[in-house]
Amino acid sequence: MKNKLNIAEQLKQKYHKCEEVTNFKEMIERSAQIYKTRTAFKLKNKDGEIYSKTYEEVKNDIYALGTELIENGLTNKRIAVIGKNSYKWAISYLASSIVGVVVPIDKELHSDDVINFMNVAECECILGDGKNLKTITENIEKLNNKKTIFVDFEKSFEHYLEAGRTLLEKENTKFEEIKINPDEMKILLFTSGTTGNAKGVCLSQKNICSNILSIYGIVKVKRSDLFFSILPLHHTYECTIGFLLPLYSGASICYCDGLRYISKNMLEYHPSVILCVPLLLESMYKKIMKSLKKSLPDYMIPAKLVELNSLPLTINGKIDRKKLPDVDFSMSTQKIELAKTSTEKELIKIWKNIFKIEEIGTNFSFFELGGDSLLAIKLLSDIKDIFNVDLNISVIYSNTTIRELGKIIDSSIKNSIKITKQPQKDYYPLSNAQKRIYYASKSSVNPLVYNISGGLLIKSLLKEEKIKQIFNILIKKHIDL
Fold it and tell me: What per-residue string of b and e applies to 406-426 under the rule 16 or more CB within 10 Å gives b?
């Protein structure tokens, strides 16, 4: 009898198969060999035109940069990388981590913090965007190592690549000969310090490669996938999943030009994978809704956006609505504005009954809560019963919140004509319509113009008392008779 597998072993059997790698150099060489001419990066030139970098070209650039770093005496030295997400950042990270120890630093930090991290890490070189390097050189007196090498992405970086290529053409094999100890510290990063002082974290390439393989085993990354890099690369989350994972998997990477250009870049690149945090998703959701509101009436704007891998279909190929997931229309993230008038309080009760939701504010939209034309008709019926106000359904479409609708109802009540019951009298003044009938009856031409004459032949026996009772009831009910 076979031994029962534990949970970890059972899960492993369900993982996607993946080839093991233990360091970045091994991963780069493997990917360049398997995915040689496939696109690794989609980039933009100075004119905004999109071009591609193949896996073989990426490997050659890493080898060239790494070779030149070695020539500058940076073997086993600490090398900082700082700047916005870019191809230059990516190959700098990989080359630095193979030649020495890479120290990724947040580009948004104050220059004092950047210099402090460089001093603590004992960095001898820094590669990065010009504006970040400028803030450091302006405060160079605070930097312990005055001989620190500065490689500017906009200026000297290309010279480093060209120098490295020249060395490779001369059969310089120093970079190729590097042997990496998978368990040796090769990445030194600093925490954000949100809960206190920033702390240094030492990682080996085996640590990161283990994460890459674990993710690949659970989430199948296709070679046709295009990763859209938005989150900062100095964070391990984005660096591992949005950068190193696609390079291992044979997928492609493109970079966001900035948060304000997300929608523009998505139309340009058509990515299939985006790594997000909740705040970014919320921001994207608001932008989508704002864009829709410019071109669509409120009732046509979707109340919720729900992600599905595929739409459930019937055997006829139509959408099977019964199999669509239930949608939670609660608006728990929206600030609740309390009712200020009695009308608004009554409307909140009506809406709670319609939507079966306990927390509703006067600022909530009828359609964002899940309202539709049928529920709008029910709402109008309830308003008629409670406020005795007749509203057209178009009013609901143009006044979607309780606050807006309450103002319409209050205005309708204020401007409505109230019919009051008159005290009982022996006689009442004739209305214009009654006067017209009176004058017509006195006319010699046709005095019976308003009379309907006719006869009824009854063949059975009538009870005279019963008929009298019927007429008396009619006269009693209608005073004018």
Answer: bebbbebeeeeeeeeeeeeee
